[in-house]
Amino acid sequence: MPSVAFYTLGCKVNFYDTEAIWQLFKNEGYEQVDFETTTADVYLINTCTVTNTGDKKSRQIIRRAIRRNPDAVIAVTGCYAQTSPAEILAIEGVDLVIGTQGRDKLLDHVREIQADRRPVNAVRNIMKTREFEELDVPDFADRTRAFLKIQEGCNNFCTFCIIPWSRGLSRSRDPESVLNQARQLVAAGYKEIVLTGIHTGGYGDDMENYRLSDLLWDLDKIEGLERIRISSIEASQIDDAMIDVLNRSSKMCRHLHVPLQAGDDTVLKRMRRKYTVEEFAEKIRLLHQAMPGVAITTDVIVGFPGETEEMFENGYRLMEELKFSEMHVFPYSRRTGTPAARMEEQVDEGIKNERVHKLIDLSEQMQLEYARKYVGEVLDVIPERDYKGAPGTGRVMGYTDNYLQVVFEGSELLIGQLCRVKITEAGVNECFGQLVRVLKTNEAPVSKQLDSEIAALPEALRA
Length: 463
Prior knowledge:
Elements: E1 3-8, H1 12-27, E2 31-32, E3 42-47, H2 52-68, E4 73-78, H3 79-83, H4 85-89, E5 96-97, H5 106-116, E6 120-121, E7 145-149, E8 151-152, H6 163-167, E9 171-172, H7 175-187, E10 192-196, H8 212-220, E11 227-230, H9 240-248, E12 255-257, H10 265-271, H11 277-290, E13 295-302, H12 309-322, E14 326-331, H13 349-372, E15 378-386, E16 395-400, E17 405-409, E18 418-425, E19 431-439, H14 448-455
Parallel strand pairs: 1-2, 1-3, 3-4, 4-5, 5-6, 7-10, 10-11, 12-13, 13-14, 17-19
Antiparallel strand pairs: 8-9, 15-16, 15-18, 16-17, 18-19
């Protein structure tokens, strides 16, 4: 049986794409083997180019694959492959470079290379691509949350970002195709679907009269689907129709990731973001109104060129005021080829680090504050795995709909089930709780053993 090994760098979309590419190999009779420990016939490296470091790490992994088996077919895909195919083909031992599209032809290229060992550059001009690349993922290794890619590319051209050049312009997946895959995932036992893309909230921008809010209502009608989560949405995409879905759909998770990037108007303008501080704050206020208790997480870039101490302080005060439930904080990193890399007034690394730490402290403070509100409350948790902090101790962990990570005592048979859990202790990255009951959904019980475990619970805790 031919074998393939994967290595994925970068974002969740890349991980989704790797899963989709694995389906192509699986259908051709390949088995997947471990990248680090097993010799494979094909190595596929899915690369990242969001920073210069991403490029460097991608090159290191490519060379590692070549050393592992010089006779294997070495295929490179992803964002770095899209933007710098010649650079990658210059690495001796690389057989195939394919960008962020046309990957349905991957196996054809592999067969050609195996026949005549001639390197292939299959990268095409991404800016001319207008079609969403249809690649299905009917199943995921982690059984509780399924990712569903609905969108590709971005039209924003923020000054710090290379992604439009590596992913192309925004294009949406056909609604019927999204709904079919969602039904397939629910039939495979998934209760939560995370909608993902490069610019997920831009879904429908290239369609007539069909937006992300319309898709959410259509997903809402799927029986057996308990939770719908949006991986990320821009403040400018939160309109009345979106607020209405969040307000009225019982399946929408009370968690939204809304990237702020900077809390000062001058910096936002230099970044070419499409909102002011005031507009952003207003959208956050509307979200809290539509979904009481909503967890809002965000991204912040610290030390963007020209960011003064005063601008940083303005941002700090705004973030404090908006009470995010968590912030992902990044020091600004110069990305060759972007307008921001050429800007004057680059901020000193020492100052950047100092500011990053201040914001990380603030984030942890806000995370704890948000979690504390739920101590004593009973929330729905779908356990995902054995508790990583202390494996084998009879505890499992999973997420609530408002994105609290909760650890509680329970058998691994609870993984993937909808559990009611009372929060007993709040923490920065994880909270602790106590199983109250397992909710039976309208499907058959998972196993007799789980049924008997539920039966053994005290009378008051049983569903």
